[in-house]
């Protein structure tokens, strides 16, 4: 199927690894031009080596000045901007709230929520000028269900949905759609580390934690990064021109976390 994305100008934050890299790859497969940022310099080098046409720049989106500089350089290199994917995030601590370090709380919200603000506010003029602007926010199942012992992450991801809903109302008159994707249990190292941390915190085995997690999912399998990337592709295309303000779950019908 031709998704009509050839020549699309896209920014993907935290795009050098994991879900972000899969989003970058699928966009490139469809003929999009992509700029990405990441804090992992080695991963950036690997991304550039694999695809020399990528604009791959270092940036911590939690730093407002750095984020603004990245967006300006990226849009300049691309000659404008049609799609912004706010993918950057951190897992945050696994602990009861009374034991969460304030610095860990602040860092989780700074990256997952304020980072999206830092990037988006600079990108809006270019998206408005595009005439077909799209913003995709990466929230989480934790952004609608809550997550015991993961309060900083859940709070940040609930905030992402609030930002999505507000921006959809604000930017809709300019033809810009804004949606959030809510992944569930995603295959990969990050999900494994989260489960391992939970197992350690509760004094239980990894197998027990995994079995408990899938007890609350209708489709008892991990979500893949490609499935999330495919959802981004659809939201970026003309078929999604009137889809906005939505929190779209890609989670196998997950009913509970933690």
Structure description:
The chain contains nine helices and seven strands, in the order E-H-E-H-E-H-E-H-E-H-H-E-H-H-H-E. It is of the alpha/beta class and 258 residues long. The chain has a single domain, classed as 3-Layer(aba) Sandwich (Rossmann fold), CATH 3.40.50. The chain has a seven-stranded parallel β-sheet, with helices on both faces. Strand 2 (33-38), helix 2 (41-50) and strand 3 form a beta-alpha-beta unit. It is globular. The model has no long low-confidence stretch (mean pLDDT 95).
How do the helices and strands line up, and which of them pair or pack?
Blueprint: E1 9-12, H1 18-29, E2 33-38, H2 41-50, E3 55-58, H3 64-78, E4 83-86, H4 102-130, E5 134-138, H5 142-145, H6 151-171, E6 177-183, H7 189-202, H8 206-214, H9 225-236, E7 247-250
Parallel strand pairs: 1-2, 1-4, 2-3, 4-5, 5-6, 6-7
């Amino acid at each position: 199927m031709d998704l009509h994305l050839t020549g699309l100008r896209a920014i993907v934050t935290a795009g050098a690894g994991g879900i972000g890299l899969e989003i970058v790859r699928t966009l490139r497969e469809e003929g999009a031009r992509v700029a990405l940022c990441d804090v992992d310099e080695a991963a950036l080098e690997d991304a550039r080596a694999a695809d020399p046409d990528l604009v791959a720049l270092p940036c911590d989106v939690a730093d407002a000045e750095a984020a603004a500089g990245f967006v300006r350089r990226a849009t300049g290199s691309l000659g404008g901007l049609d799609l912004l994917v706010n993918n950057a995030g951190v897992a945050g601590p696994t602990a009861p709230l009374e034991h969460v370090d304030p610095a860990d709380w602040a860092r989780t919200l700074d990256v997952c929520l304020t980072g999206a603000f830092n990037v988006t506010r600079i990108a809006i003029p270019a998206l408005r000028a595009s005439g077909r602007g799209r913003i995709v926010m990466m929230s989480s199942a934790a952004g609608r269900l809550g997550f015991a012992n993961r309060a900083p992450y859940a709070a940040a991801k609930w905030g992402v949905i609030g930002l999505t809903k507000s921006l959809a109302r604000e930017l809709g008159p300019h033809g810009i759609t804004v949606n959030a994707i809510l992944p569930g249990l995603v295959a990969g190292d990050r999900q494994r580390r989260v489960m391992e941390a939970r197992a350690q915190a509760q004094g239980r085995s990894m197998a027990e934690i995994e079995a408990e997690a899938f007890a609350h999912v209708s489709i008892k399998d991990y979500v893949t990064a490609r499935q999330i990337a495919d959802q981004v592709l659809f939201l970026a295309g003309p078929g999604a021109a009137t889809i906005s303000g939505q929190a779209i779950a890609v989670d196998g019908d997950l009913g509970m976390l933690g």
